[in-house]
Amino acid sequence: MTSASDFFHREENLNCAQAVLKYFNAPPEKIAEYKAFGGGRAPEGLCGALHAARLLVDDEEKFRNLLEEFAARSGGAITCRALKNEAGFPCPACVNLAAELVEKHTVANELTVVSKGLEGGITPPPVSRKPGYAIRAARRRNADTPPSIPAVPTRH
């Protein structure tokens, strides 16, 4: 598995929130708990992948920065409904972008989970070196395969 979307609706049938957690090797209990947050069911309709990202970053300021960058790259949307219906941003792209931004917005890719009930924290996936590493590696392996995160259409 080289990207977070590799876990999305595959063998274990994980939703967007669960796929992000699985990518970062979260405990199975936490992954199971986040089954309730896929498909637009995260608080305030937030994208489930972003809801999982909130758990993984170590403070609210970093999460706000992550949200701002996600919105900039997804056509301004952060809720599931807006991402799917208005921005036309597919779920696998949301999962990959959220995971990439978690890597970027955590200190030296060491994930620290504070006050969220995860004993021992969560270890980053072994394939990730820099933000977007997994996506670039997949592109090199499969040059004929379209990128995991599509270009965001511009709005006029």
Describe what this molecule looks like in 3D.
By secondary structure, this protein is an all-alpha fold. It has 7 helices and no strands. It has helices at 16-23, 28-33, 48-56, 60-73, 80-86, 91-104, 133-141. Helix 1 runs parallel beside helix 3 (48-56), helix 1 runs parallel beside helix 6 (91-104) and helix 3 (48-56) runs parallel beside helix 6 (91-104).
Outline the biggest β-sheet.
none
Q: How many helices in DSSP terms?
A: 7
Shape: globular
- The helix/strand class is mainly alpha
Q: How far apart lie the N and C ends?
A: 37 Å
Are there runs of 5+ residues with pLDDT below 50, and where? 112-117, 126-131, 142-151
Task: Summarize model confidence as the mean pLDDT.
Answer: 79
Oligomer: single chain
Could you tell me the number of beta strands? 0
* Element-level helix/strand string: HHHHHHH
How large, in whole angstroms, is the Cα Rg? 14 Å
Helix content: 40-55%
